[in-house]
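Weekly puzzle thread! Below is a chain. First person to post its structure in token form gets bragging rights.
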Amino acid sequence: MQRLTAWFSGAAFSRHRHDTYAIGITDAGVQKFWYRGATHASTPGDVVVLHPDEVHDGYAGTAAGFGYRILYVEPARIAEAVGGLPFVRDPVVRDRRFAATIDAAFDAPLEPLAVDALVFDLAEAMLHRTRAVPAIRSISEGVERARQLLDRATHRIVRSGELEAASGLTRFELARQFRARFGTTPYRYSLLRRLDSARARLGRFPVAQVALEAAFADQAHFTRSFRRAFGMTPARYAACNSLESAACGNSVPSTT
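Winning reply:
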């Protein structure tokens, strides 16, 4: 789980998508974003729920900017809690209980059992906002082996044959089961893990070096992929996480 507290003015993120649920609360100003073919607005106290692999952006609805806190949660954790992946049709909801759950996530450092409780509460809150949860059919243990392989391979490109050998499934059956379990495809999952590894190195090493070490063909390819995943360039991301830079508000990520 990743927690992020941020303040932005103007355009915060260009259109991008990630392989996690993004569940947040607007603290100040007006947060606007494009999602599933429409523009939405969130004001202080509103909860925002974005689903895995859904394209979206983010920008300030007024000149005053906006502040928010957001949680990024792996779909598998939500599925374990409620037996499927809830789909909250309205991405902006006014729900005091839901908001309180998000508040609790930022109150203090989260111990392992506290994380488990938080995931369950978030899953229950989403379940309350949707009519039905699609049941997950039997998932092969090979899917988890494939995921573990991708988690380790953050500095190279993984081939379909490797995943078939690790999982014992054909590439197409693996793709179906992988999406049911993790909310995205093996390729997207692999790409995000390589990008996650790369962004941890930004600011400490040249962008070109980071790109090559994450198995991207060149810096331009890395920059395009990074922007599609995180809604900003690697250079801007590094600036946002530098205490010496005011290039983009106060953006403070932490991972648990």
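Puzzle host: Confirmed. Bonus trivia for everyone else. Residues 180 and 188 are 14 Å apart (CA to CA).
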